[in-house]
Please model this.
Amino acid sequence: MEYSKALSDFCARLTYGDIPDDVAHKAKLCILDYLANVYGSLKLDAVKGVASYIKSLNGPNEATCVGLRFKSGIHNAAFINGTAAEAIESQDGLRFGGNHPGTAVIPAAFAVAERLSEKRKVGGKEVITAIVAGYEAADRPAAAMHPRHTLSGFLPTGTTGTFGAAVAAAKLMGLDPEKMSNALGNAGYILPVSMAEQLMGGYTVKIVQGGQAASAGITAAFLSYAGITGMPSVFEGTQLGGGFCKITTDFDPAYERITDRLGEHYTIMDIYFKPYTACRHTHGAAQATLELKAEREFGPKDVEEVKVFTYGIGVIAVGKGVKENDSIVNAQFSIPYVVSVTIADNDLGPEQLTEKRLADRSLIDFTKKVKVDYDDEINKMYPEKTASRVEITLKGGEVIKKQVEIPKGDPRDPMEADDLAAKIKRFAPERNEADLDKLIEATLKLESVSDIREITRLME
Model:
């Protein structure tokens, strides 16, 4: 089976008319979620630093840098927008792939569409089609390798996100099947390594993986347009160590996932959204904690001990603690921090993941009361369910407990348009609400937009 060719040909030939209404609608919801995350990240010091760097490049005014009130070249705009979409750790994701496609695919699509609109109007239907195809190209190879790709040392948001960004760009450029194949092959050569250890160490360079994938994907597509060729069997390979999926995974990839129900089931329909600003592996614990707090009133001073039970990869990825003045990345990937700040604040949003909160010694001391353990029964549910159980021992000895098996935002307990509109406003309280309403309304009617610049102007 030529898995790479099958996926490439499908993406090249996909038209808006092929896309079911519910799939097109989900793409628009992904855009809303992306916007919320970009706006919510702009206050983070790390994002401010990247934005300052991008602005200093004085690139051509080709594409909008969302929320920053300036434009830059398409690669620069895609880089900062993808970085901001990633940084707040509330981005969309695929449970079966461990990846976050929206941080790469959507900034690439809008940047390229805006640039192309200087010569011809690129409409909303084209952008929706590009995004849907891009998610297919990012998600399917990620699913073929999950979870061993991450356990082998790579983050699929950066790696497979480049394939998605390349396809989104290539769709908007109108590349034929042969050049689409070359775009994917090129992406496999220039994509970022995205070392998982950078995340596990809490290093803030982790936040650029979406932006780097978006920028590299655009490059891959334009190289194909310029005649640069890439291997047509980029995922499976034919010689030496094999293709991308083989050389970045320490076991045999499930290649059949690349083509499973291709054209019948769109991976974007499996995408979850996050109501909270932390790694998805923490969400079961966060939601369980919030539900316990809704049932009775208690705070840190009332708690003797907290035990959180979860699945194996959750223990590995988010079981660690934090220290005073730790990095926001470490806090976003720490169940002890997430549960502690949720108990203290009765919330888990942008204000809970800040340098100020990480400097709160009493909060950091409380995190030492939270222990994370593996649970065999919960582990058997993964990845079908990303469950966690929280058991809180109150002073006096009473134990209260709650288990959440399907956190909010999953397609089985979805966040709808109203939820995502509220998320945008919650994450961007400093922006004019009437302006946000116009942007939300325009996004939900994207298929009716004849010139994508009608939308990007509202993103500034």
Summary: Residues 130 and 168 are 4 Å apart (CA to CA). The chain has 23 helices and eight strands. The longest strand covers residues 303-310. The mean pLDDT is 98.
